[in-house]
Design brief:
Layout lengths: L4 H7 L13 H13 L9 E6 H4 L11 E8 L4 H17 L14 H7 L6 E2 L4 E3 L8 H9 L8 H4 E3 L7 H15 L10 E6 L2 E7 L10 H19 L4 E4 L11 E9 L1
Parallel strand pairs: 5-6
Antiparallel strand pairs: 1-2, 2-3, 2-4, 6-7, 7-9, 8-9
Helix pairs in contact: 4-9, 8-9
The protein binds flavin mononucleotide.
The site of flavin mononucleotide (FMN) has 21 residues, from helix 9.
């Protein structure tokens, strides 16, 4: 891997206040290269571009001092939310390995300008973007208040996020592996910090569910993008710990979509 996932996940916080100095050519080249090599473990693949904020008129009312944005789009095919959330979060962690700050933004942006800049077609969607820049030494007052308002530093207890199937048989080694990766999934960013990801451990498999708490809008269900970021953390930590496995969708687990919706499973080999 390009970077230590665990180190970056533990360090990561959303950044909305940048130093106004932009990015070095080396940093931009690193990010472009990372985008080129990106491949997510789902069938539909997003496309990303880094665009200059001034040149394209890109801005967000909650962000200051940014010169660059990472924009992406994806075809509206099965699991696009998961794929996009995974990819965008992976790029945010990679950026952090170069001390570049990010914040995933789905709501607080002038959407039509961004969509035009990346040329979103009818069969595509631009779920979220992030500014890219070096964090300022101090957060803006607006950012401080915003973080307080949504309790951005809080996370639900591990026990509220993770459960076990009643007859689950688990080796001690797998229990430890799953525990660490799920603790890291718990730290993932999420829209309005609602933390919709839930997990149920069953032997060598972890089933991920979405506990919905935000209304869907014309763009669909943004909390599924949150799930993408959470499973990205999980998967990267599993890889880093040398565990081999893969994502699998089990249609038999898909049930009532109104409360906890089944999203995906990760099966250890
Ligand atoms: C899919 C998604 C959409 C988000 N949309 C916004 C947004 O529109 N505006 C914003 O300021 N932050 C947005 N965020 C950032 C969250 O508010 C942030 O992740 C959360 O408060 C937790 O804080 P942390 O990332 O510093 O841990 C979004 C995050 C995700 C994952």
């Amino acid at each position: 891997m390009l970077f230590s996932a665990k180190e970056m996940i533990l360090k990561r916080k959303s950044v909305r206040t940048f130093d106004g100095k932009g990015l070095s050519d080396d940093d931009l080249a690193f990010l472009e290269e990372t985008i080129r090599n990106l491949s997510v473990p789902f069938s539909v693949q997003p496309q990303f571009r880094i665009l200059n904020a001034k040149e394209y008129g890109l801005s967000s009312p909650v962000v200051v001092g940014e010169e660059w944005y990472l924009l992406g789009k994806i075809e509206k095919k099965a699991q696009w939310e998961l794929s996009y959330g995974y990819a965008l979060e992976y790029l945010c962690l990679a950026a952090l390995s170069r001390k570049i700050g990010t914040v995933i933004i789905a709501g607080t942006l002038n959407r039509p300008v961004f969509e035009k800049a990346i040329d979103v077609k009818d069969h595509e969607i631009m779920p979220a973007v992030t500014p890219l820049g070096i964090p300022a030494e101090k957060r803006s007052l607006r950012e401080i208040l915003m973080r307080k308002g949504i309790h951005a530093d809080d996370r639900i207890p591990y026990e509220s996020m993770v459960g076990y199937e009643p007859d689950c048989v688990l080796t001690e080694a797998d229990a430890a592996l799953f525990r660490e990766a799920l603790e890291m999934a718990r730290l993932a960013p999420s829209a309005v910090n609602r933390q919709p990801a839930r997990a149920v451990i069953n032997g060598n498999t972890v089933d991920f569910y979405e506990e919905k708490s935000l209304k869907e809008n014309e763009l669909g269900d943004i909390q599924k993008v949150d799930l993408g970021a959470a499973v990205c953390h999980f998967d990267l930590v599993m890889q880093e710990n040398g565990a081999s496995g893969r994502f699998e969708y089990d249609p038999e687990k898909a049930g009532n979509p109104f409360e906890r919706e089944y999203i995906i499973s990760w099966k250890k080999d």
